[in-house]
Amino acid sequence: MSSLAELRQILKEDVSGKNLYDHLIQVLMKVLQDRPNNAFDSFELISSEIKSNPLDPNPMKGRNIPLAPEELQRIVKWTKTNDSLLKIPEEALDEPEVKFPQLLNDFNLLEWAGISIGRSESYRLFLSIKSFVQTLPSEVERIRFFGKITTRSLPYFIIEGYSTSDSLEDLNELVQEGKSGVNKYTYWVTQRVDGSDGWIKLPHVTSDQIVCARLIRRLLTGDLNANVPSYPIFNGLESNYLRALIAIINGSTSISPDGFYELDDSEDPPVVKPVESESINENFPKLATDINNADSWKHHELEINTIGRVTALPEQTDESGEVIEPDSDIELTPPLNNLTPEDWTFRISAGGSGISGQSYVIAKSLRFPGAVAVYADRKYVNIYIGNGLPFMSKSYTPPLPLIVSDEYVKPGSEEDTDYPTWQLLVEQVDTRVDPTPPVNENEEEEED
């Protein structure tokens, strides 16, 4: 029988430079450190782990480097902020009356289109919206996550709310549309997914702000109170500019498969409304190959026209009460309008093993990169994640200044009776005759 010394010598002999004796010692040391409950069953796993990460006899080596004070303060702040969101309440909260999205399901669907803000961020954003919904008034009927707009600093996370309130306060229909127009929805923004900065309500948008936002091209700064230096001059702060961009994007990229919405002819003018759930169950699901084209989708939000409106201008009357006719007819986009095929691209995602009736249809906007719609089964999701600017095939050129118009009445003319003539600056006539001409020599001799 071999002695213990001979066995130790055999275990140490290895042509690779490593020996089984030292490896067994490290495995046993690992068992003593971790004290697993099933050491016998996990012996091979521990051995494999030691081979890939050998133990170092130096106790100081391999220890975690202490965090910098700034990093530690950031982690503590994050923990305090998210503690209220992630903590399970002792008592079950009442279900809010406001309908809010199941973001986790929506983002699982959007991942097939390559859209994601991260699993952890999605969950905290969902909890933040759920907490915010508890503070909304009863007239808010539903909430939707609109998307994320990047800035030169922190991004804007945007939610969209629909209120049953009929009108807006102090509304001038000539300047600003009401609930039937571009101010149909109310928007709130925050710059952190946990909502620690609070959800800030954006102001309603005017037609002039939408028209000007289309003419300029400027990235957002991340400060809602910042000025918007531009030409043409934008009348408002960044909060107004952001609201104008949201209105443009919402009207251009809110699409759904044909059959989810219908026209309500009982209203004047007719409005778009969701169909009943029975109708959706009858018409859907559809084969992915049947709706993988622009003809099978509709705009369920009205697109904004050239003057920044979706409804006609109200009638204007002069002093005598007669209706003032506009100089030119302004076209309005019809409800449930068809898609422009050149502005969208479609593809089918497998959604499983190969393309089938359960496959997903993904629509991406070419006009506004970052606007995506995904359809699956009896559901669709719209979202926008981008910088808020439309695609341009050529470099941007600011619009030229307007032509300087002539004065209606020339100062000093016979028609201008209110302006005193003695205050006018009269331009002297050009003198073309030399006042001191040279004298000829012959004339000088005659005088002598």
Description:
Helix content is 25%, strand content 16%. It is an alpha+beta fold. The longest helix has 18 residues, at 69-86. It is extended and about 140 Å long.
Largest sheet: 8 strands, mixed
Number of DSSP E strands: 15
Q: Supply the number of helical segments.
A: 10
Low-confidence stretches: 419-426
State the gist of this model:
This protein has helices at residues 4-12, 20-34, 43-52, 69-86, 103-110, 119-133, 207-215, 238-253, 277-283, 441-447, and strands spanning 140-149, 156-163, 185-190, 200-201, 255-257, 261-264, 271-274, 297-299, 316-317, 323-324, 337-338, 344-349, 360-365, 371-376, 379-386.
Furnish the topology, listing elements before pairings.
Elements: H1 4-12, H2 20-34, H3 43-52, H4 69-86, H5 103-110, H6 119-133, E1 140-149, E2 156-163, E3 185-190, E4 200-201, H7 207-215, H8 238-253, E5 255-257, E6 261-264, E7 271-274, H9 277-283, E8 297-299, E9 316-317, E10 323-324, E11 337-338, E12 344-349, E13 360-365, E14 371-376, E15 379-386, H10 441-447
Parallel strand pairs: 1-15
Antiparallel strand pairs: 1-2, 2-3, 3-4, 5-8, 6-7, 8-11, 9-10, 12-13, 13-14, 14-15
